[in-house]
Amino acid sequence: MVTEIRQQGQYFQLPTDAKVYKSYDTFARGFGTFDFIIIGAGPAGSLIANRLSEIKSWNILLVEAGGYPNNVTDIPNMYFEVGYTQYNWGFVSVPQKTACLGMVNRTCAMERGRGLGGTTLVNDLVYSRGSSLDYDRWARLVQDDRWSYKNVLPLFKRTEKFNHRDRKAPVDNWVHGEDGLLNVEYHVPRSPQLNAWLDAHKELNLPVADYNAGTGLGASPAQINTRRGRTQDAGTAFILPILKRKNLHVLTYAYVTKIFIDKHKVARGIAFTYNGKNYIAKATKEVILSAGAFQTPQLLMLSGIGPKNHLQSLDIPLIHDLEVGTTLRDHPCFYGLTFKTNYTEAILPLENYVEQFLEGVGPLTSPGNNQGVSFYESRFTKGTGYPDIEIMFIPSNATNDLSQKAFRLTDETYEDVWKNIDRAQSFVLYIVSLHSDSIGTVRLKSKDPFDYPLIDNRFLSDPGNRDLERIYEGIQIMLRLARTKSMQKLGTTLQGGPLRVCHNFIYQSREYWECAIRQMSMNLYHPVGSTPMGPNPSNGDVVDSECKVYGIKGLRVADGSVFPFTLAGHPTAAIALVGEMVSDFIKQDYFHF
Questions:
Q1: Local structure of 438: helix, strand or coil
Q2: What angle is formed at CA 568 by the lines to CA 564 and CA 570, rounded to 5 degrees?
Q3: Which of 62, 137, 341, 513 has the fewest CB neighbours in a 10 Å radius?
Q4: 72-110 per-position pLDDT tens digit
Q5: Helix %, strand %, coil % for the chain, to 5?
Q6: Domains present along the chain, CATH in parentheses
Q7: Could you tell me if 77 and 265 are in contact, meaning their C-beta atoms sit under 8 angstroms apart?
């Protein structure tokens, strides 16, 4: 199975639109009436379906365009390969001017998961909540203390089932949950390269700590959403255990085309296609939109909620004027840093790795072989304890034959950086600007719901170049780590490069790195903020602090779209938090809490 799916990835072509869902039937059938309709089964949508269906008198419909997880998505280190299956929407940005310049047509791969679990089916599964300072800032911005760290920490713990199976990893047990639905654990065994990297932090007096405890500073083996080495995607965690609940209806391979909003501006239901036919489902209480940072704004705009001028230009009747899709935020990530060592990772026959996987250990249990993460202050946050730089540490055997295709690297870029590295001896670093100042957009290509949206992420476009500066500082941090005794015991030396396109600059000079950063910085599966939360829609806010869409009754957004800014961590944990919060808000509103 593993061999077959790896071969398939070499020739599989990702879709460029959603016309596979298109129905040519002119008749719309009734699908039924439900108390709540949830659109999208990512971390928030799946969790909300779980929590709301706890109320036996409520009837819940969860609509998902993809299918169920399978034996391939079950293997964490197959996530590159899963990206070349039906589980990836295959979105690509519009051509860029400030980043992704070393990619084909200067376009960034914008991978989004399709299926029960959403993007947790195709990403690297890092469980990173962000900084406690993120949530206090969030609470101030939205003017609602329920989003403060002291108030969200119990909800994080309620979701989490922590398994401390790497006993040497730094853990503050008091911040972790033991009885939740989402498993969190460490990959085992550790690479000697990871141990050297962690020791290098100690040499430089940089903290090695549980980054999910407090402000988030520190280096650590990565906490990941696996369960005994198997992928713990959101569908597996939140939906599969409750499929027998009679009041929960899970509809897969169904594509929502519109939210119905009546003349009183109340959301009343949805239109969708399923098995080549058109259907309408009605909601008596609420429609909850959890389609992700690209498709949530797309569906709102198709339904008449969005920027007035944009909708009118596409001849879409305006129902409510809001800045939907105007503030796409993301974490730009630099992929161009690799080092060679004198340590050689043994490469075993695939059968050995499968045997290890079935025991819950070994390379197949590590998503993308990402084994370590660390968080640092940049010069913009120095002394505050607020991290805004991340380094992800990927030991040997990280790159594979799909790397060039997955990152959309041109032949020249790939040859300069990755083609000639020794995979058994080299490790790779991802350098991330966490509190991104660059702002992109999501817009409709047309009023055809089966056209993909236009995604313009505009990485590294902020006027002050703060995002580029953070990545540059992250590279310098890693170069200092590489010079420590701990790393030099492994003979750690920089490799990969110089990039030919940056030949006008002295190799490793600041000007060279700035050129290289723009060539090889792109998406990290972290788009958020396209329908932001806040107190004032006249300032661009789309939802209030209870995730209710301004001006529309019975409609909420619950996914990463509502983030008011990018967090100092990976979004999955915080998106699940949004699911917990919205579930509580709804239960309170309807007197079931």
A1: coil
A2: 90
A3: 137
A4: 999 999 988 999 999 999 999 999 999 999 999 999 999
A5: 30, 20, 45
A6: 2-95+98-105+234-329+527-589 (3.50.50.60)
A7: no
With CA atoms as reference, report the closest residue to 138 among 125, 151, 157, 119. 151
pLDDT-based confidence at 403, cuts 50/70/90? Answer: confident
Residue with token string 């990772």: 345
Other residues' Cβ atoms within 10 Å of the Cβ of residue 187: 29
Compute the average pLDDT of residues 393-402.
Answer: 79
d(CA 47, CA 62): 11
* CA dist list (Å): 564 to 68, 142, 294, 567, 574: 31, 8, 15, 9, 12
266-278 confidence digits (pLDDT tens): 999 999 999 999 9
Instruction: Tell me the C-alpha distance between 287 and 292, whole Å.
Output: 15
CA distance 402 to 397: 13
Q: What is the pLDDT of residue 406?
A: 87
The torsion of the CA quartet 353, 357, 363, 368, rounded to 10 degrees, works out to 130
29 and 280 in contact (C-beta within 8 Å)? yes
**Interior angle at CA 91, CA 85 and CA 26, nearest 5:** 85
How big is the chain, counted in residues? 593
Q: Token pair 């006249």 is at which residue?
A: 538
DSSP 236-266: IIIIGGGTT-TTEEEE-SEEEEEEEE-TTSB
**In this structure, are residues 111 and 523 in contact, taking their beta carbons and an 8 Å threshold?**
yes
Q: What is the pLDDT of residues 17-38, one digit of tens each?
A: 999 999 988 899 999 999 999 9
pLDDT value at residue 200: 98
> Which residues are CB-contacts of 415 (< 8 A; sequence separation ≥ 6)?
none
Which of 306, 319, 297, 322 shows the shortest CA–CA distance to 561?
A: 297
Tell me how far CA of residue 538 lies from CA of 14, 289, 327, 545, in angstroms.
38, 22, 14, 15
